[in-house]
Fold:
Amino acid sequence: MTAPLGRVVATERKPNTPHEFHFWTSLDCPVGIGTIVRVDGSHPIDGQIPHIYGIVVEGFSYTDLQSPMHDVLGHDGSPSNAGFAVTERSEIRLYTAAVLRQIPEEPLQPVPMGEVFLAGEEDVATALRMDAYLKDGAHTGIPIGVYRAGATDSVIWLDADFLLGPEAAHLNISGMSGLATKTSAVEWLLSSVFTHFPESKGSIAAVCFNVKGPDLCYLDQPASRLEESDRALYEKMKVEPAPFKKVQYFAPYTSKGFTLNTLRSNEALLHNVTPLTWGLREVLQYAEVLLNKDDLDAKADALIDFIGERVVNRRMEREGPLSRDHTVESFADLEAWFRDLLSGMEKMNTDSWRTHHIATIRKVRNRLSNISTRCAGLVTDSGHVSDLPFGSFEDRAVYVVDVASLEEDAQDLIFARIVSRLREHLERRDLGVKHLIVFVDELNKYAPNDAQDTYVRKMLLDISERGRYLGLVLFSAQQFRSQVHRRVVGNSGTALYGRMDGDELATPGYAVLSPATRTKLATLEKGQLMVRHPHFTQPIFVRFPRPSVLSGREGAEQFPQAADIGIEAALYRSLRTIDPQVTLAWVKDIAWQYDEEDLIEARNATMRERPSNARQFFESRLRKIVPVEKATPERRVSPLRPLPVGDPYES
Amino acid sequence: MGHRTGVSQSHDRHTNQWPASPHEATRFILDALPDCTPVEAQSPELDRFSHGEDVPVLLPPELIEGETFRAIHVADPRSRGASGFTAFLDGTQDVRVVNQVFGIPIVWATVSAVIRSRVNRRLVTWSGSAPVVRRGYYIPFRYVDGMRDDLRSHPQVTDTAKADSAGNIPSRHPAALMEAAIQRVQQDRESVEIHLAEEWCAKEDGVLFVDGSITASQRVSTSHRAVGVVKSHRRLYADGDAFRTVVALRAGERSSIFRVAPRSRYPVASWYVRLRPPAGRDALFGLVRVEAAVSGDMSQRADEISRWIMAEGSPLALPDGRWDKMAYGIRDTEEFLRAIS
Structure:
């Protein structure tokens, strides 16, 4: 039997309640804010000795000194004299603990007097109600970190049902930037989920939106340094300290269309980077993401719907103002259709076509045509589509969509469309996996509390409120939780907190935490988190290991971004990923003959089809060029007869 | 009492219902003495007796150091020297009239004592002997009719109306009975203190700081392992010229050593020490009388012990009203006893 480390105390001024109690310890006791303790009552209730589990939320220390002035007087006003006192004043370490669990749970009574013990591993499991989901045969635990206090080293498990649905679901992470909280925690947690997610619950994958810098660009690369302490944590939590095995990157092209717009553009890493390009059909459905309220009045909305339903991908025969037949499959086709329509209306001197006023048609033309310019690199005039593998998502795979370098409009469009498609596929149960985690950082930007309603925010709200029924789980992160829409964070069953800013902690959302807990949050070390989970009645502090993948900063140093290159080098790099026989000389030999636009289109088609003979396919997609024939010298025709000498008509 | 682990009961409880608080004591005796009535608050007159103080008296010092009674500088009062004391002994008493039987006070008292030893500059309860807490009734048997035999024979019930060695019996006057009860309580407190001090002297090598006189025990009064420090000066050993010397002692000075041998007690060497500057205060401010076993090198030892006592003045024993004379270790023992008794 271990020795008690403290005793419960209660006074009339500071009584114990069913949810809080006080205890004192010796001065050298390994108790601090966040320590889990167990109280053994001394009197049985219904024949059972009560055990109360609590977590320390506040600490006090004081001496028998009644006034600070007494200490000043006692040392003649000289602090240095204090060191010579033969006796140190009586001092107390008094702690307040919040009750995590009482056994028996009924009747719920104030915490009785009793001895206080440091909670062991088994106590921690009981205190946090983890025993309910760590049973043999029904183990749904996902390790989030290790709780440490004294000699106790206990794995803290989240319940998969409450982290990934169908119960509470969703996770939200808050923490200051640059302190290895948000990204590191998500990388670690994904590893843990992929390792421990029960087979019986089906397949799972993750789609991560990389919204800033190179944060998520090297998930398939091993960490450059993992210390022994990190490895010990991995071992303790039975997670392999290795990078993700299945990672696929998606990034749009730059506006020039040569190279991918991602920090993961190093040639050595291009093998699993896929272009993300959409055409008219893909974009039109989400036009409202890119059009503001002024653009999108009822009339414009009606015309866009008409174009989507009756124009795009349909043959529109010559009629009325249209001078020819149209098949609109791309932005270029749409522009030609608009041009023909408006020209015809002007010639016919008519104001409306099929109830749509010419001004509305002009406005919609202007706004839609603008999209391919605003989202250049993502939206193609040609209609070429390269997308995530909807329908064939793999189990335990991570799909990273790199939108870090994109304009805000393009980011919004990507986010809206991908999440919508994921949702549609999950509804139809044909995504390829049963559960999908969507990770979005910077919720302060995408789902702010105080800004106007946006399409992206609506989508995030929708996921957080209804996603769990579909298996669509939102892992979100932000620096200031208080400035994120309440329903997004409120619907997150699990919340992680890294080191927090003092101003943020002063907001009302943190008022439920004790001052000491808030202070601890403001001073958390790297690798420490505070965890709130539906099973835990109080927040718990845990340690988690460094992610086993290359960090963004180190990755950017190890795999520098490719320099801005010309069309030939860009073609060479792209095609080589399909066919290693492609040489720069071969590319140069072909490229000089064609426009960049033709070359890019042929490249895109080749990348899309991924044929066995990439060179032949690439060449076949280019227009035939008739070889230049050498002109033969003109033959002179000899005169029939010479002119007579002295001919009077000769001039 | 009895809830605290490690605190010894100096008696065996006759019954499980032996009271542990004045409130319980009131109820208990109501059952044992049918004619008694509870006392909620005692009168100021009775309260005055509960302090049990002697009449102030000046006594001539019997010098054993030098020819004249003089002041001797022993330490700079501003310096903080080391202390040779390794533990502190103090006892407390709490006396209350809980009931009365036709005007006869039924007294309930708690006496306690503890030794707190110093380990790494912090005070902990001495492991050599547990703290002692005694609770009992002090009843003048002869004036209370109908006392049950089990109560009369209970070891925690003391007869306060027994005849003394001269055959004198306290009168029925409540104040006289109260005074007699107080005396018995003081004797009981002194006995538990002596018990602990003798245990210390038998088991330990370090020097014990005893709050009060050490003359009640032969073993303690002759041991170099105990020093008594008396804060009250109802008996002032400074008659005649010595009085001026004592009241004029400056901080860091001690008086000449004199012999103290109270009646029916054991002789010790004694001297006065001024712990704090008396400027602007009364004459006895910061003045203590020290008692130690008589030894050959008494002057040197008195100097050393005086310096130790001065060192014990830090930290201050505030907020105790006797902070000018009280060592912090004694305040700690009193706080400890208040917590357990």
Q: What stands out?
A: The first strand of chain A starts at residue 6 and ends at 9. Residues 391 and 431 of chain A are 4 Å apart (CA to CA). Chain A has 22 helices and 22 strands.
